[in-house]
Amino acid sequence: MNIRTRFSPSPTGMIHLGNARAALFSALFAKKNEGVFILRIEDTDAVRSEERFVEALENDLQWLGVYWQEGPGKDGDYGPYWQSQRQPIYEKYYRILEEKKLIYPCFCTDQELNLARKIQLSRGQAPRYAGTCLRLSPDEVASRLAAGKKPAWRFAVPANTLIEFTDVVKGQQQFKSDDIGDFIVRRADGTAPFLFCNAIDDAEMKVSHVLRGEDHLANTPRQILLLNILGLKVPHYGHLSLIVGDDGAPLSKRHGSFSLHEMREQGFLPVAVMNYLARLGHACDAQALLDFDELANHFYLEKLSRSPAKFDKSQLMYWQKMAVQMLDVAALWHWLGESVASQVPLNLQSLFAETIKANIAFPHDALMWAKIFFHEKVEMGPEELKLLRDTGEQFFVEAEQAVDKYGIDLAPLLAEMKQTLGVSGKKLFMPLRVALTGKSYGPELAQIAGILGKEKMKHRFGRAVQYASGNE
User: Fold this and answer.
1) Does residue 165 contact residue 220 with C-beta atoms inside 8 Å?
2) Fewer Cβ within 10 Å of end Cβ, the chain: N or C?
3) Could you tell me if 53 and 93 are in contact, meaning their C-beta atoms sit under 8 angstroms apart?
4) For residue 261, with 0-12 CB atoms within 10 Å meaning exposed, 13-18 middle and 19 or more buried, which class applies?
5) Using alpha carbons only, how large is the chain's radius of gyration in Å?
6) How do strand 162-167 and strand 171-176 relate by DSSP bridges?
7) SS in 3 state form for the chain?
8) pLDDT, tens digit, for every residue of 58-83?
């Protein structure tokens, strides 16, 4: 089988983690099987679709490391890849359905449909179209058309039919056609709604596997009915478990900002996001940070989870920090940007990068350390000030004298302070760290000393004497 997958977003907003994961899984599966990954723009909703969102989603996918072999800018044999340009294809299939008398005009207004839906729900019934316009006589249809009413067209779902398919994620699925109401395949303005054009395009583009969110599961039997009646090939469907937050609800804005664009602006590295998504609802059998091709080698449909995929910020941060550690010096500085570089003397940039690398996750973390190391005054918080005062003036007097004697050679400096003051371990290291950086965490003391140098260390220990005495 020639493997062909696709990602078909609507350009009505920024791409979020759920859609990004579906795109990534589809691209990984195609890559693993030497297939083709297609990007198709579903822009038939002219009111909500915007060109800027198309450009944004292309940029975001490429930033993530997901590239398409067919789609915008990558012409193939089954284009165009914009649904707004495929109307003649849809018209061909409308004619077939109309000739077979499988669709009918529907004049129901939105108000009438909403009222019918409310009544069904109040009776504990699943909302479905009641077939009102199916019962119209030819004269009644002609009368409405003569009055200038523009109908939508509905597909007449056959009665007493069982729709079965094997979902590559969820297993065997069964749906009764009697539970599916007649659905719209052509809007009143002549354009194709999602259910119709999405299915037609998958068949026309020879898509072999459709991986999409489980919120589309109810659409699948409708699309299978359409494709079977039109004699078109039905792809293999796989419905991915939804991503949920800590509260078990589908991931949304209230859980945080999870569009790729926002994550990119926050400083997330694409390889970190890709590695996290590749394991979100998928049991990857490799634990290392992998590139796209390596992840494809470890991608298996049978390892996709049927249970909701819980978003775990700590796991995302794990991959982010690992990705930072893998950056070489040039890549690190490119990622940190000019705002950080401008704070660091050129001759100390390599040493600074080596010193802070293990202690940052984002460029703003590096900016904080740059200001700590290269600005004169160390900012102290209430807890840090208390630590210095509890430690006492004499400690920092001894530290200042030891630096004067040993410079940045920490081994003899620490040994002398330990012997003179009778302190060791945390009680020795923590006050020194706070006095030098204003932080209770961060790089090793030896690295801090290397960055600051003898004179700045002496100055900061002198300030710590004042802090400890309460005179600062």
Assistant:
1) yes
2) N
3) no
4) middle
5) 31
6) antiparallel
7) CCCEEEECCCCCCCCEHHHHHHHHHHHHHHHHCCCEEEECECCCCCCCCCHHHHHHHHHHHHHHCCCCCEECCECCCCCCCEHHHCHHHHHHHHHHHHHCCCEEEECCCHHHHHHHHHHHHHCCCCCCCCCHHHHCCHHHHHHHHHCCCCCEEEECCCCCCEEEEEECCCEEEEEEHHHCCCEEEECCCCCCCHHHHHHHHHHHCCCCEEEEEHHHCCHHHHHHHHHHHCCCCCCEEEEECCEECCCCCECCHHHCCCEHHHHHHHCCCHHHHHHHHCCCCECCCCCCCCCHHHHHHCCCHHHECCCCEECCHHHHHHHHHHHHHCCCHHHHHHHHCHHHHCCCCHHHHHHHHHHHHHHCCCHHHHHHHHHHHHCCCCCCCHHHHHHHHHHCHHHHHHHHHHHHHHCCCHHHHHHHHHHHHCCCCHHHHHHHHHHHHCCCCCCCHHHHHHHHHHHHHHHHHHHHHHHHHCCC
8) 999 999 999 999 999 999 999 999 99
Q: Which long-range contacts (CB under 8 A, 24 or more apart) does 252-256 make?
A: 255/311, 256/313
- pLDDT digits 0-9 by tens, 380-420: 999 999 999 999 999 999 999 999 999 999 999 999 999 99
Q: Which amino acid is at 303?
A: K
**pLDDT one-digit tens code per residue, 128-156:** 898 999 999 999 999 999 999 999 999 99
| DSSP strand pairing (236-240 vs 209-213) | parallel
Strand, helix or coil for residue 147:
coil
Gap between the Cα atoms of 400 and 250, Å rounded = 56
Q: Are strands 243-244 and 309-310 parallel, antiparallel or unpaired?
A: parallel
